[in-house]
Design brief:
Two copies of one chain form a homodimer.
Chain A lengths: L21 H7 L1 H15 L5 H7 L2 H4 L8 H6 L11 H10 L5 H13 L3 H33 L9 H21 L3 H24 L7 H26 L6 H25 L2 H4 L5 H4 L5 H10 L2 H11 L2 H10 L2 H26 L5 H14 L3
Chain lengths: 377, 377
């Protein structure tokens, strides 16, 4: 968008030995991402009373109780450990000032940067699809609470569901309002399809919880619906916004594959990362009865779900599970699968680059692909 | 739409002594309402697996546990008291075949009938806005559960929240997809605003629960956001769909006022109706700590919230509360207020009728206004 010419050739694209760095990409889009944050803050808090109402009904105190905080929740929280009575405008400031990786927004801005110069609509689209993501996270909290109830002592009180559901609905409404402002019906429809897919993914995930026999294809179907559908919607919508209807199918397939990379890496990090780096508990998938690709590959090596069950019960800790998975070569095999999908992403980008006036903005997208699969948090 | 010429002059419009009958209006739009039901059924169950997933995750058994069933839930339930394993197509049949008053759809079809002949888009709009309404009902169940936890023994298990949240999100997504098919951005935006308003209304309602001092203006603000905003969106959107942009503001005000009538009548029925007629428990608002207009007017007569609290505690039953409210003339005063708002609705319709080629379709709308305020269920 406004600073593509500053992209350094030292980004070291497609060199797996150099860990890709999102921060350089974020700097490229710094001004646009700031606009995305501002737009989100304005839309969430635009109603004169919404923020105050959330505080009044105990939400501000409730956020911290949740076991699955997301970036909005963290952003809404002041730095201090106690929660002072905060005004909506202060909340909005936090939202603008503080972090959140804004992965989907960055991806959209990068594509629009590569394909056109329609900056303002790009910001609106990026903010809208981040809000959709955020709404699903809030509702996932409600859904996962049901689960935690069965396995964990620190179950949030039921009261927390109300603000999470309402805030999620509010974000959906704001997001679709912003999508309508893009004035392209196909983008609204694509986002609806992605939202439906995420719902079905969540429902099917509930079905597999605690099932040691979950097949590999079910895992891929789940992550396709839960994660890849929306990321595919981001890449498709960005291309449609740039008037590249005839390429939008390939942009969708690029984004969809990238989404698989994103979720596979996420699931791997739940084993290999540590809480300090990741910013949340590791081993939470196993604790929640969600058996992801590493354990599915392990089970395939062992021959039965019963052996997987015994192994998890006997290992007792995430560290011991991870150690064994590493010894069995399972973690490396997952990394290989991630790299295979990354190659597909790079090939899509190479094709797409040929169809467009080739420019260095595509290098940013290649770097994003590397980051997505090789990140440490 | 297809049968306006069959509307009988014996509908006895604006004659308060004759109870208005929705069934005649429903017959007028019978074929269109059937299309609305079919469209809703198709959209909800279009995904090959969604219905099966809901059954697999225990939703089919869970519906009946809820204390606030809505028309979809009732429609999804077979006639028999036990819940057999039902296929998605059987569920869809139920959805098409069985009831639900489809109030919002009927209103939209009546306006479109009065203003144009764009039948197919009218059906799509009607189905979409019914789905929005339904999504809010599903999420209200989750929100109200939080409440019931505090006061009632029959709290649904936490597990029921997951399908309610997901089904609601799914309906929102389907609804916005259908709105996008109407290809008018202003309708999408209007619906987003109404959805936001409903969220804020729910949040503010939580704030007032159990508060005997709830001011009259807070009550009206609540019902405006919770109910009137969406009904205003229905009437505004219907007029926009018919290309009557210049009248849409007055159509909105008509629908908004009609929505106030709708909710005031609903709140009155919670006192005056009986469970057999109403199809649900009466007295539930008081039991949930929601003090509506009849009790607010009673308190204004008594002078303090403390006296209202004492009265409710000492009365002990909904019948005794209602008897006293009737004796004090409070129920009649609420009916008067409803009639005042109905008069405003009729005046809007008279204005609007002058702006359009006056036809008998407006008489249907007048009858709907009468029904909305004077209904017994």
């Amino acid at each position: 968008m406004n600073s593509s010419s500053t992209v350094s050739p030292s980004l070291d694209v497609r060199n797996p030995s150099a860990p890709p760095d999102l921060s350089q990409i974020l700097i490229t889009f710094d001004s646009d991402l700031h606009q995305v944050r501002t737009l989100i803050a304005e839309r969430i808090f635009r109603e004169e009373s919404f923020g105050e109402l959330l505080i009044a009904t105990g939400v501000s105190g409730g956020w911290r109780e949740w076991d699955h905080p997301d970036w909005l929740i963290r952003m809404l929280e002041p730095e201090s450990s106690t929660m002072p009575a905060t005004t909506p405008s202060q909340m909005a400031e936090h939202l603008v000032a503080r972090g959140g990786k804004l992965y989907r927004a960055t991806l959209i801005l990068a594509i629009i940067n590569a394909l056109s110069d329609n900056q303002q609509k790009g910001v609106t689209l990026a903010a809208a699809l981040e809000l959709i993501h955020l709404a699903t996270l809030l509702h996932d909290d409600v859904i996962d609470n049901a689960d935690m109830r069965r396995g964990k002592p620190s179950m949030p009180t039921l009261f927390d569901n109300a603000p999470a559901v309402l805030m999620g609905d509010h974000l959906y409404a704001r997001a679709f309002e912003m999508l309508a402002e893009c004035e392209i019906m196909r983008i609204v429809s694509a986002t609806c399809r992605a939202t439906s897919a995420m719902c079905r993914g969540e429902v099917e995930q509930l079905q597999w919880i605690g099932d040691y026999e979950i097949p590999e294809e079910a895992y891929f179907r789940l992550i396709e619906m839960k994660t890849a559908a929306l990321i595919g919607c981001c890449t498709e919508s960005a291309s449609v916004l740039c008037g590249k209807e005839e390429q939008s199918e390939e942009w969708y397939r690029f984004g969809n594959t990238l989404g698989l990379v994103f979720q596979m890496a996420d699931d791997l990090l739940d084993f290999t990362s540590d809480p300090a780096t990741l910013g949340k508990q590791t081993g939470s998938d196993v604790a929640d009865g969600k058996f992801t690709l590493p354990l599915i590959l392990f089970r395939e090596g062992q021959g039965s779900g019963e052996k997987l069950r015994t192994f998890i019960n006997e290992a007792g800790s995430n560290e011991r599970i991870t150690k064994r998975l590493r010894e069995e070569g399972v973690l490396e095999r997952v990394s290989e699968r991630i790299r295979d999908f990354q190659k597909v992403c790079h090939r899509h980008l190479d094709n797409l680059q040929k169809k467009n006036s080739s420019n260095e903005s595509f290098e940013i997208l290649h770097t994003l692909v590397d980051f997505t699969g090789n990140r440490t948090r």
